[in-house]
Design goal:
alpha+beta; 16 helices; 21% strand; 7-stranded mixed β-sheet
Length: 482
Amino acid sequence: MNILALETSTSASKVAIYSSKKGLINVSSIPYDESISDIITQDPNGIFDLLIKGIKETLRSYPCQIDAISLSGIWHSLLLLDKNRKPTTPIYTWADTRAANTVAEYRKDQKLWNWFYNKTGCAIHSLYPLWKIIHLKKHKPDLVSHAYYITSQLQYVFEQLTGKTVESKTIAAGTGMFNIHKLDWDDDILHFAGVNRSMLCELQEPTYKAPLKDSMAELLGLKRGIPVVIGGSDGALNQIGAGALKSGIMTLSVGTSGALRLAYDKPVLPENTSTWCYYALNGKRLAGAATSGAGNCLEWFKKRAYKGCGLSYEQLNQMAAKVDIKNAPIFLPFLYGERNPGWQDNREASFIGIKGQHEIGDLYHGVLEGVLFNLYQCYEALTQITGEPKEIRISGGIENSPLWLQMAADIFNRDIITSGIQHMSTVGSAVLALNALGEIADIEKFEPECGKKYSPNKDKTQIYQNRYQTYLKYYQMTGNKR
């Protein structure tokens, strides 16, 4: 059985063919240009048109029978539609923190914070669609008053392919409007935000499937009525693709943003609210922590901070590998605000300790290190609640950099195991589809091929521990109390 796995991520459109016998056999990725996405917003029609283009090109270069389609998209996206279900806004992504000042007023209310967190597993933070809606109501009331429906990036793609107005529970869990206990929209929170339930889609498990529209089948050259599985967020599907729905396996994703996750049978909601808890599937919740800065910080450094330098990532890595680590500058990676552990969406990035002898390689090392320091903060917060994991499986763009992978092992002082395959969330999407179609009976038993293991270098681990304490000092100095 061949699955056409489609992913609309923050930065690119991905199309893959996954065989139930051979695994991932063809993958193409088309980066969004600035007319489609500036990271914080996306053009919904541009996203979909590029996805269609990618499907056609993939099927042209690798013709085969497609038995089903599966979807993956980003968490925490917001799209408003008119009464004809046409977009009236761009897609607002998780990176859009323009609601930060509005959110800051609500964040002062500790009772509200706890009420909201314990219902949803989400914090009061501008990345969540609920708070974007509240912000738009305050600052752009006409825009919201003309909106009939509230949806997401993934749901919009599913609707264009099938005509069905259904939302994945996995995506809903990242909106701030979903009750993590009842696994449904939360009426109290909808009332609080002035959102009518009729504006939202019916919720279904991520294994929900609907037939491909005839017009789409004809456009793509696929057989009529093949099932389209709604899937869910790239983060949750990464957990599936990594074989990490089992107890004690932590995933560490370092792509455009970064995240750590562990699967549980019930909600995990600590009193200090430093982590989040979202729904995965089949009753499984994911306890996790995430950062807004990761690969996007590297992209900023290469394309904006040193625009025109002409250096490749490989060249930058080579320069960073030669750095005197003890005397390198410290980087606070908050170009797009902070998610965990502090939830400060208006926090800013900065280099600290730059000296006259520092060059591009020193600064780039600081960026690589700073991203991992923020993730290590998240690791400390998460493991205080869950305990140390048995194993850490890493995936994402970080796998393209052996230097960065080794740095992760050194900073975490743990063995780090790579996935052995790229596009882990896309694989998870295909595996989910095979489960939905009965090809894989127990999705928790799926076990991917493992890649290389990176073990910590004890000498460097101590250096990084000392630098991490310096990072924490500056982190505390530059933060604001909630």
